[in-house]
Amino acid sequence: MKEKIYERERAYLSPYACLSEKTKGREREETPCTMRTDFQRDRDRIIYSKAFLRLKNKTQVFFAPDGDHYMSRLTHTLDVSQIARSLARCLSLNEDLAEAIALGHDLGHTPFGHVGERVLNKLAPCGFKHNRQSLRVVDKLEKDGKGLNLTYEVRDGILNHTKHGTPHTLEGEAVSLADRIAYINHDIEDALRAGFLEEEQLPAEAIKVFGRDTSARINTAILDIYRESDGKPYVRMSAEKAEALDSLRTFMFENVYERANKLIQESAERMLGELYCYFVERPEALPALYRGFLAEDGVERVVCDYLSSMTDKYAIGVFKRLFVPREGSV
Question: N or C: which end of the chain has fewer CB atoms below 10 A?
């Protein structure tokens, strides 16, 4: 069955695609699966990981929104996966590789969205970036410290999915673009729903280029990337569309992300700051899994591992347990 997949890829994928049978492999050799390619196995390992399950309770932009239809870190990840697969399909790239990278790209994200990332990066001498942490999750933290042992190509795509990353595969380039397309467009939708924005405030020129609703903007972006990149050794937008997307991104940072961040900045800084100091001073209070990493990685790095793994609700619960007096306590 796997051989049929290999044959189909050789026959139909672009000469610039990453063929499953040509993977650079894993850091630790394993017995191959008889049915699934290595990239399909990576996708399955990510989906069944604990870090992936926790994404459903991590903030995307709006913390604890009053409504059921706002993006969480998990729904954002699924959105990126769908756009990345659409790009891979129309460009004859490896859909399985693109999907695996997309599903794993935010596994290391903190609670409280990018506010949490900024707080940990400020507190920890070792620094903190969610893309590097996502790689650490799949390399080391999952499966009780064994890691998921993913292929080189998936790991590379996860590490390099940010705007300034340099993925070594076109599938990784597709995910990086899909991430920006997803968060900008659906964050606009959430901001309108939350009353942070009115449609008339959106930058007129960018909206004229991409369209007024989410579906139109995503379709426009995918079609433009197809026209610009089909049969080429790269995945990118046309200059016009790239400029319009950057305009929307800048607008969102200035008018939504900063405002939304300010609403939880003080609380998130206080909670994560107190938790960070508490566990740095008392590493023996860390869960057993994380204590096992202390000798090799140092207390600051391991405390970041623990705090970034938390969901929003779990972080609040730990903070309350440690710092908020309970009724009847002496």
Answer: C
Q: Are 251 and 187 in contact (CB under 8 A)?
A: no
Q: Where are the domains of the chain?
A: 38-110+128-261
pLDDT digits (tens, 9 = 90+) for 240-275: 999 999 999 999 888 887 776 676 778 888 999 999
> According to the model, what pLDDT value does residue 328 have?
60
Say yes or no to pLDDT of 4 above 80: yes
Q: Taking each helix axis from N to C terminus, what angle separates 113-123 and 258-281, rounded to the nearest 10 degrees?
A: 40
Q: Is 203 exposed, middle or buried (0-12, 13-18, 19+ CB in 10 A)?
A: middle
d(CA 221, CA 181): 7
- Which pLDDT does position 196 carry in this prediction? 80
Confidence (pTM): 0.94
CATH superfamily label, 38-110+128-261? Hypothetical protein af1432 (1.10.3210.10)
CA distance 218 to 21: 31
Q: How many CB atoms neighbour CB 42 within 10 A? A: 28
